[in-house]
Amino acid sequence: MKSTAPADDACCAHTHGLPSTAPTMRLTVLLQFAFIAILAILIVFYRHTPAFATFSITFVAIFLEALPFMLLGAAIGGLIEVFVSKAVILRILPSGRLSAILLAAGLGMVFPVCECAIVPVVRRLFAKGLPLGAGIAFLLGGPIVNPLVFFSTAVAYGNDFRLAGARLLIGYLIAVMVGFFIDWLLTRQSALVSIASVLPGDTHANCVATGSGGLWTKTAWAMRHAAADFVDISRFLVFGAVAAGLLQTLVVRGELAELIGSPVASILLMMSLAVLLSLCSEADAFVAASFRTMLPLAAQMAFMVLGPMLDLKLIAMYFRMFRKRLILVLSTTTAVVVFLTMLLMQGVGP
């Protein structure tokens, strides 16, 4: 009797985490063990100090506030992965290149997925003929311009829906600008790797859609995707919450203000943290909000806008889809546009 479920995980269209090369896996495991060892030392030797109490409160507050949005985002991503055909997304986009870019940058409002989940989706859309600029706009805008990120940002900032709306608007405009620029500068042939070479082992969504499994089978696979996503993104939230807790505990606010004496320095610091911490777009606002009393709003916004567009895990995943030339242009252009936008925001005021 044949099984109605897909044969194995090789039939999966959804890439979780970093590429599974042996050196990367070994380095990831070593870093995680080092991280756990450092936390164990802090707990054993400093658990009775006031500084550790401050760190613990900050860490738990950030993690628990972000947790519901991470769970919901993972569940939505899993359902979209299994139940929404890539052809459906292609039919929504107009045929004109410029209008496709404008619509693609806001497509996350209909298909809210985080930055990890959007990479395999865009890769398959490119294989189906999606214009380069529209794909870039969706890739950059989707993780920010979606309702889940809007509400998580508002909650993180005390139900400030104006600030949450500003984040979505800024993210949309930057995605459109970068999409237009790359569409003008490069062609699909010069920018994309051979998409077919990375797709044969990535066909789980098609297996589910075309297999004999019914609603419950597909739902089970969607929840399996959601669970894998949640495990992947939760560790990055832990790293981010720990980093924010340590900064707020070990660095005196006056010393930080002196260290970051200009808006330029504070914006660059938060942009660097966004790239290094590699947080999920549904949780990064809670980390950014923890710096409200320490850094200007433009620096916090830089963290929330750049992170979902460009971080270490995304750059690693881009190598399965883009040529090195496009990765360099995309990374540089995105960082420069975000930096200049935040300087403009700082000059205009809140």
Question: How does the SSE layout of this entry go?
Answer:
Blueprint: H1 22-46, H2 50-83, H3 86-92, H4 97-104, H5 115-127, H6 132-141, H7 147-156, H8 161-185, H9 188-191, H10 204-210, H11 215-250, H12 253-259, H13 263-277, H14 284-289, H15 297-306, H16 312-318, H17 324-348
Helix pairs in contact: 2-7, 2-11, 4-6, 5-6, 6-8, 7-8, 8-17, 13-15, 13-17, 15-17
Strand content: under 5%
Which percent range fits the helix content?
over 70%
- What is the number of helices? 17
Number of domains: 1
Could you explain how this protein is built, in words?
- This protein has 17 helices and no strands.
- The termini are far apart.
- It is globular.
- The longest helix is centred in the middle third of the chain and has 36 residues, at 215-250.
- The chain is an all-alpha fold.
- Residues 1-20 and 196-212 have low confidence and may be disordered.
- The chain has one domain (47-348).
Features:
mainly alpha; single chain; globular; 17 helices
Give a quick precis of the structure.
By secondary structure, the protein is mostly helical. The protein has 17 helices and no strands. The chain is globular and about 60 Å long.
